[in-house]
Amino acid sequence: MESKFKMLNAVKIVGLTVLAIGISIFLYGFFVSDYSAITGIGIGTVMGAIFIFLMGVFFVATEEMLEKTEKGMRSIQ
Fold first, then answer.
1. In this predicted model, what pLDDT tens digit does every residue of 9-32 receive, in sequence order?
2. Calpha distance 18→67 (Å, rounded)
3. 49 Rama sector, left if φ>0, alpha if ψ -120 to 50, beta otherwise
4. DSSP codes of every residue in 10-40
5. pLDDT band at residue 63, thresholds of 50, 70 and 90?
6. Residue 57 in 3-state DSSP?
7. Which burial class, exposed, middle or buried, applies to 15 when counting CB atoms under 10 A from its CB (0-12, 13-18, 19+)?
8. Fewer CB atoms near the end CB (10 Å): N or C, the chain?
9. Which of 13, 11, 15 is closest to 23 using CA atoms?
């Protein structure tokens, strides 16, 4: 159970860090820079942070479901 909390905390910290970087890149590209490509990079970084967070939560949920199911194969006779 403790490994799930560690995994969720790690995903949360990494996701929040990448999200903050993405928001700052987006705001810099939108308000400060004249290049529109920087705004796109910021949007992509924010989307990557969301993807990282969702995949981490999915892995934790999958691990929990696998622990709850029976191991082995059933044979119907």
1. 999 999 999 999 999 999 999 999
2. 30
3. alpha
4. HHHHHHHHHHHHHHHHHHIIIII-S-HHHHH
5. confident
6. helix
7. buried
8. C
9. 15
Residues in the chain: 77
> Which of 22-26, 37-41, 59-63 shows the lowest per-residue confidence on average (mean pLDDT)?
59-63
Query: Under a CB-based contact definition with an 8 Å cutoff, are residues 45 and 18 in contact?
Result: yes
What CA–CA distance (Å, rounded) separates 61 from 36?
A: 38
Distant-in-sequence, close-in-space partners of 22: CB < 8 Å, separation ≥ 6: 42, 43, 44, 45, 46, 47, 48, 49
